[in-house]
Amino acid sequence: KKADMFPAECIVRGYLAGSGLKEYQKQGTVCGIQLPEGLVNSSKLPEPIFTPSTKAEIGDHDENISFERSVELIGEEDASRLRDLAIAVYAKARDHAAAQGIIIADTKFEFGRVDGKIILADEVLTPDSSRFWPGDQYAEGKDQPSFDKQFVRDWLNANWDRQGNPPRLPQEVIEKTSEKYIQAYETITGRKFR
């Protein structure tokens, strides 16, 4: 269904990684949320946090924003509702995945309205919108092996200076990424990928 989308992405973080880690290392916060001292790469957070971002135009980067800024963009009632829904969906998914041996470190949701009701839209809990880590290999203080697009990010960071058009991904990177996505699917769902 065509939804009237909210102009914010709803990110929930259960672990410190990515842009959240970078901000924490500089300021001790993530999207304006003060976190305890002494956290390191991949630290589990005391509780999941809601860290919205703007929805950038194609080709631009999303920008992390505070909850207060999301209130300015969409209103307090909707911002609060989206925060509560995002955290609830994350918590349910996190618990299911954990029972299958997968850590969902963070994820992104997008919400919209259809017939006046708030709905969850776009992709949900995919390797493109979430960080999936193998629970049996988790160790705080370092980058984690993953079943998500981090593999592609790492290759791009090593082979592209972010100037001009990105290089074409080698076939082996494409195949390895596909394998990781399929492994995540099969591990979390308990079903064979077709």
Any overview of this molecule?
With 194 residues, the chain is α+β, with helices and mostly antiparallel strands. The chain is built from five helices and nine strands. It has helices at residues 18-27, 67-74, 76-99, 150-159, 171-189; strands at residues 4-5, 8-15, 29-30, 33-34, 44-50, 53-54, 102-114, 117-121, 130-134. The strands form two sheets. Strands 1, 2, 5, 6, 7, 8 and 9 form a seven-stranded antiparallel β-sheet that branches. A hairpin with a 2-residue loop joins strand 3 and strand 4 (33-34). It is globular. The two termini are 26 Å apart. The mean pLDDT is 91.
Largest pleated sheet: 7 strands, antiparallel
Stretches with pLDDT under 50, minimum 5 residues: none
Class from helix and strand fractions: alpha+beta
- The number of E-state strands comes to 9
N-end to C-end Cα span: 26 Å
Subunit organisation of the chains: single chain
Percentage of residues in strands: 15-25%
Taken from the alpha-carbon principal axes, the silhouette is globular
User: Counting H and I runs of at least 4 residues, what is the number of helices?
Assistant: 5
The amount of helix comes to 25-40%
Run of helices and strands: EEHEEEEHHEEEHH
Computed Rg: 17 Å
Could you tell me the mean pLDDT? 91
